[in-house]
């Protein structure tokens, strides 16, 4: 199936960004939101995005106007009728998403593809809301969706192969890089990024270092432009907490720490000092190893569970999160013995097994540059 028309449910930050990407590719795009104010804001956002693209000479005025002209809006879920692809981008709540999917079911064409833009909810838990679960999958965009190149393509247990093929062709048309992954809590990227941010909050909780010091060590350890606290301020602490909470069922290691819970409940940004005091070498090494362990352990578990291939996990870290030194590459640089030494304290503290299958695949798999 060739996708030529898209309906997006939700005109917020993610829905609007997804819409802009579709418009830029020349796709007829209808954005549906019950709030008229959100649709007005969307029109302004779309106009500003394409005006800026013209100013920066990324496209001509005629091309920008043509893209803007592909936008349609509506305030009823019935407006999904006729769309080849429907992307649900509403609030990250299982019941809210189930209700929306159930409500659009009767308005879908028999071969319409439906995708949920969820960062952590299982596709299998949402599929029953639709009459044709074989046409349903996850498309997890990363913020800002109009710019970030990566999209996780999540196949549920009932997702049909032609559905995945059509989704991959759609993503190629709109200029996105697809990361196929299995339907598992956190999928590929959040499976390791959430524990990493949670461990940063735990280091703060324990008084080992300040937010600025932890960010500084993280940037040096993984060749990053921004550390975990700076990133959480961009996505907002409440959303960061919600993402971590969605992984809590995976075990004690994934349970959110007190500092993250407090920040998420207030949704106030982390206070990060501009010029943090240097840490003693031993403490700096401790912080770096704790952050490495919090990345390495979930990555290895995900590899062992066939959530995604080792190099695909690194692709996600590079493209979605801008890791200059992504986790699997970092482990390979350290070597297997040192990697096991780094993660052993975590396995002991939380009663987790050493991820032997993941270690074998990470270190035995053919390595790409």
From TrEMBL:
Q: Which PROSITE patterns match?
A: 3HCDH, PROKAR_LIPOPROTEIN
Q: Which domain of life is it from?
A: Bacteria
Database matches in InterPro entries: 3-OHacyl-CoA_DH_CS, 3-OHacyl-CoA_DH_NAD-bd, 3HC_DH_C, 6-PGluconate_DH-like_C_sf, NAD(P)-bd_dom_sf
Q: Which GO terms describe its molecular function?
A: 3-hydroxybutyryl-CoA dehydrogenase activity; NAD+ binding
List the source organism.
Pelagivirga sediminicola
Gene3D superfamilies membership? 1.10.1040.50, NAD(P)-binding Rossmann-like Domain
Q: Enumerate the spans annotated as 3-hydroxyacyl-CoA dehydrogenase NAD binding domain.
A: 5-183
Domain 3-hydroxyacyl-CoA dehydrogenase C-terminal span(s) in chain numbering: 186-247
Protein name according to UniProt: 3-hydroxyacyl-CoA dehydrogenase
Mind listing the GO biological process terms from this record? fatty acid beta-oxidation
Q: Pfam families, alphabetically?
A: 3HCDH, 3HCDH_N
């Amino acid at each position: 199936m060739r996708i030529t028309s898209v309906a997006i449910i939700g005109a917020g930050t993610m829905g609007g960004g997804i819409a802009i990407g579709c418009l830029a590719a020349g796709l007829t795009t209808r954005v549906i939101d019950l709030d008229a104010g959100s649709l007005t804001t969307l029109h302004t956002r779309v106009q500003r995005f394409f005006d800026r693209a013209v100013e920066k000479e990324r496209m001509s005025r005629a091309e920008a106007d043509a893209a803007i002209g592909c936008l349609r809006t509506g305030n009823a879920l019935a407006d999904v009728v006729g769309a080849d692809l429907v992307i649900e981008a509403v609030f990250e709540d299982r019941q809210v998403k189930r209700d929306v999917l159930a409500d659009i079911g009767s308005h879908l064409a028999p071969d319409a593809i439906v995708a949920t833009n969820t960062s952590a909810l299982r596709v299998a838990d949402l599929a029953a809301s639709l009459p044709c679960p074989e046409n349903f999958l996850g498309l997890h965009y990363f913020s800002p969706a109009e710019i970030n190149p990566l999209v996780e393509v999540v196949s549920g247990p009932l997702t049909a192969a032609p559905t995945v093929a059509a989704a991959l062709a759609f993503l190629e048309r709109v200029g996105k890089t697809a990361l196929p992954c299995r339907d598992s809590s956190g999928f590929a990227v959040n499976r390791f990024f959430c524990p990493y941010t949670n461990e940063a909050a735990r280091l703060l909780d324990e008084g080992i270092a300040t937010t600025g010091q932890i960010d500084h060590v993280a940037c040096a350890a993984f060749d990053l432009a921004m550390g975990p606290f700076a990133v959480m301020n961009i996505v907002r602490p409440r959303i960061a907490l919600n993402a971590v909470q969605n992984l809590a069922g995976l075990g004690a290691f994934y349970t959110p720490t007190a500092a993250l819970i407090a920040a998420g409940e207030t949704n106030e940004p982390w206070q990060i000092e501009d010029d943090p005091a240097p840490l003693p070498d031993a403490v700096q090494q401790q912080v770096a190893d704790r952050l490495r362990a919090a990345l390495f352990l979930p990555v290895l578990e995900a590899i062992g569970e066939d959530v995604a291939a080792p190099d695909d996990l690194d692709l996600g870290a590079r493209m979605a999160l801008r890791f200059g030194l992504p986790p699997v590459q970092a482990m390979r640089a350290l070597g297997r013995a040192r990697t096991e030494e780094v993660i052993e304290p975590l396995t002991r503290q939380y009663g987790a097994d050493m991820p032997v299958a993941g270690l074998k695949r990470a270190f035995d798999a053919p390595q790409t540059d």
